[in-house]
Design a protein that fits this description.
Distance between the termini: 36 Å
Number of strands: 14
Number of domains: 1
Strand order of the largest sheet: 7-6-8-13-14
Radius of gyration: 17 Å
Structural class: alpha+beta
CATH superfamily: Creatinase/methionine aminopeptidase superfamily
Number of helices: 5
Order of helices and strands: HHEEEEHHEEEEEEEEEEH
CATH topology: Creatine Amidinohydrolase
Bound molecules: magnesium ion
Helix content: 25-40%
Shape: globular
């Protein structure tokens, strides 16, 4: 990770947007094929095929040695879930985190899906986590500080009794997947680096239904909650413009595909 924030030109932002929208299209495609009985390895293959067929590269593949194309985290798994033999069951939720490299620039976005009869408490966790992402985005404006984003996410989730994961954070991105600054989901108002025009970041709340504590599983990648309760995760790539944040990824097409797939539960929003 480079030490300085690399502000992006409009040309670079356009390329980041293209990559981010390919991520969104990929997540929408995933939304159309998710169902109980599918394994996370099968989902990962679908993701890799989709991205490469559109001329992108699944940038997580090989990143620090990560052996798959996407991070697929089921129920108590928080993030960095390693795709494999796990079979999706009715009542599961799954966070699908995808990164695309295309034209030398990266987009990064994640979405959590509910398979069938997910309990009301977990559906509410998903709703609040998604809403907290937008609270964070609202705080991403010129002359605010990174801590204002963190505080907005934290306050929204903590006041509703959820555990906020602090081991992992949002981040700057561009030519690299992880650039400065780090964007934690917990922080003090008015703290951290000042936000300037042209800042491109990914904001990604990782919120637990129970306690905030997480552990890394034996596969050495997957983070999971210590108490075994479910965790939700949503992420957008965005740029800070003169008059506020512009979201470069999009949930619109994902939500359409989610609603159209009868195997998914979209009653939570
Ligand atoms: Mg991501
Ligand atoms: Mg990210």
């Amino acid at each position: 990770m480079s030490e300085k924030i690399i502000y992006k030109t409009n040309e670079e932002i356009e390329l980041i947007k293209k990559s981010s929208l390919l991520v969104s299209d990929t997540l929408a495609h995933v939304a159309s094929i998710l169902k109980e009985g599918i394994t996370t390895a099968e989902i990962d293959n679908v993701i890799e095929d989709y991205i490469t067929s559109k001329g992108g590269y699944p940038v997580f593949k090989g990143y620090e040695g990560f052996p798959a194309s996407a991070c697929l985290s089921v129920n108590e798994e928080v993030v960095h879930g390693l795709p494999g033999k796990r079979v999706l069951k009715n009542g599961d939720i799954i966070s699908v985190d995808v990164g695309v490299l295309m034209n030398e620039f990266i987009g990064d976005s994640a979405y959590t899906f509910a398979i069938g009869d997910v309990d009301a408490e977990t559906l509410k966790l998903m709703k609040v986590t998604k809403e907290s992402l937008y609270k964070g985005i609202e705080a991403a404006k010129v002359n605010n500080r990174i801590g204002d984003i963190s505080f907005a996410v934290q306050e929204y989730c903590q006041s509703r009794g959820y555990g906020i994961v602090t081991e992992l954070v949002g981040h700057g991105l561009g030519r690299e997947l992880h650039e400065e600054p780090q964007v934690p989901n917990v922080g003090r108002k008015g703290s951290g680096k000042k936000i300037l025009e042209g800042l491109v970041i990914a904001i990604e709340p990782m919120i637990n239904r129970g306690k905030k504590d997480v552990k890394v599983l034996e596969d050495k990648w997957t983070y999971a909650t210590k108490d075994g309760l479910p965790s939700a995760h949503y992420e957008h790539t965005l740029v800070v413009r003169k008059n506020g944040a512009e979201i470069l990824s999009s949930f619109e097409r994902i939500e359409q595909a989610e609603k159209a797939n009868k195997n998914l539960n979209s009653s939570y929003y």
